[in-house]
């Protein structure tokens, strides 16, 4: 599975966002036309190079977002962005400050330690739009399980705005979703099963999601649309985690399984042709739920930001899939 090709502006290519300028109704958090500011926190791994955060702030400013960096965002303790106390304090400050969007600097590992000590009701009641990916899946799903509130999975400061270049489509999709402009995310899919459904969109990083099984932080979603990605996990580990979700009864309760990108793994000679396409065959054979591939989401350059916990639509046609993020009634 390779990174999706990025279409030229104004061209409906492999990934495209359909939007319109009519009046918008039915948003989860009465979003204003301007997306407002972003508060940056580090609840997981330590930022390796502070310059990347500075660069992210400059790039986000170019996209129209004012930024404030939490005072502990650059803290370091072992592999973590400071102590548990420091990282929890960062989350507490994030819901008290003025910016409507709270974005993580990076993923890594660390949120699992914090889950029992987070005031989930306060997080939900703050009305903030929390955005992150990878390890942040633990926050997205715990917030959904504990409160039913919507949060976002996709762009992060360092990976998407702090590098040498910013992917235009990643930035555009993030901005459109935050401003309430993104109606439909359309993407090329080589082999999607036929599906036309509506359900709660949920998921994220596969390994992080599986780590929540059996905890109070695993959402119990029936008839949902489950999206998944992972990085540096051999296909047999991906299959093993999917098998666990299947045997725990999670996969067969969904209306569709939407797969993003599974990247940065190394095959061994004894795999003898066993790769991600074989995992897909096993998944389809074993779990009788439609599978859609090609979602522009994962540890890749071009990625969509997705609303976790929101009711969305999903429809496929030969070679294309359409995720209806916002249904507008004109």
From TrEMBL:
GO terms for biological process: proteolysis. CDD domains: Peptidase_S66. InterPro entries: Carboxypeptidase_A_C_sf, Class_I_gatase-like, LdcA_N, Peptidase_S66_N, Peptidase_S66C, S66_fam. Residues 15-30 have a biased composition (Basic and acidic residues). Coiled coil: none annotated. Residues 1-34 are annotated as: Disordered. Pfam families: Peptidase_S66, Peptidase_S66C. One of its GO terms (molecular function) is muramoyltetrapeptide carboxypeptidase activity. Residues 1-12 have a biased composition (Basic residues). It is an enzyme of class 3 (hydrolase). The active site is at residues 134, 229, 299. The keyword Hydrolase applies. Its EC number is 3.4.17.13. Gene3D superfamilies: Class I glutamine amidotransferase-like (3.40.50.10740), LD-carboxypeptidase A C-terminal domain-like (3.50.30.60). Residues 38-154 form the LD-carboxypeptidase N-terminal domain. Keywords: Carboxypeptidase, Hydrolase, Protease, Serine protease. PANTHER family: MURAMOYLTETRAPEPTIDE CARBOXYPEPTIDASE (PTHR30237), MUREIN TETRAPEPTIDE CARBOXYPEPTIDASE (PTHR30237:SF2). Belongs to the peptidase S66 family. This is Muramoyltetrapeptide carboxypeptidase. It comes from Bordetella petrii (strain ATCC BAA-461 / DSM 12804 / CCUG 43448 / CIP 107267 / Se-1111R). The lineage of its organism: Bacteria, Pseudomonadati, Pseudomonadota, Betaproteobacteria, Burkholderiales.
């Amino acid at each position: 599975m390779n990174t999706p090709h990025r279409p030229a502006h104004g061209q409906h290519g492999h990934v495209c966002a359909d939007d319109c300028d009519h009046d918008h109704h039915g948003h989860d958090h009465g979003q204003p036309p301007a997306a407002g500011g972003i508060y940056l926190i580090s609840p997981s791994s330590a930022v390796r190079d502070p310059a990347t955060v500075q660069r992210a702030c400059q790039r986000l400013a170019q996209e129209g977002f004012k930024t404030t960096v939490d005072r502990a965002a650059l803290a370091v303790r072992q592999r973590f962005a400071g102590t548990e106390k420091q990282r929890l304090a960062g989350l507490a400050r994030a819901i008290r400050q003025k910016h409507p969007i709270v974005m993580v600097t990076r993923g890594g590992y660390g949120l699992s330690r914090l889950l029992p000590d987070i005031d989930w009701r306060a997080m939900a009641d703050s009305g903030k739009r929390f955005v992150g990916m990878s390890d942040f899946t633990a926050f997205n799903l715990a917030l959904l399980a504990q409160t039913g509130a919507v949060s976002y999975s996709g762009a992060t400061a360092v990976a998407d705005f702090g590098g040498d270049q910013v992917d235009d489509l990643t930035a555009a999709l993030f901005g459109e979703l935050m401003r309430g402009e993104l109606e439909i995310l359309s993407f090329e899919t080589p082999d999607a099963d036929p599906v036309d459904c509506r359900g709660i969109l949920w998921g994220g990083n596969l390994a992080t999601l599986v780590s929540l099984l059996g905890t109070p932080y695993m959402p119990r979603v029936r008839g949902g649309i489950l999206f998944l990605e992972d990085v540096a996990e051999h296909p047999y580990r991906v299959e093993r985690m999917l098998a666990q979700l299947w045997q725990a009864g999670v996969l067969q309760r969904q209306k569709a399984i939407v797969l993003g990108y599974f990247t940065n793994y190394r095959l061994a000679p004894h795999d003898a042709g066993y790769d991600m396409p074989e995992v897909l065959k096993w998944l389809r054979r074993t779990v009788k739920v439609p599978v859609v591939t090609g979602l522009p989401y994962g540890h890749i350059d071009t990625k969509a930001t997705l609303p976790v916990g929101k009711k969305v639509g999903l429809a496929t046609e030969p070679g294309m899939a359409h995720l209806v993020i916002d249904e507008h009634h004109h």
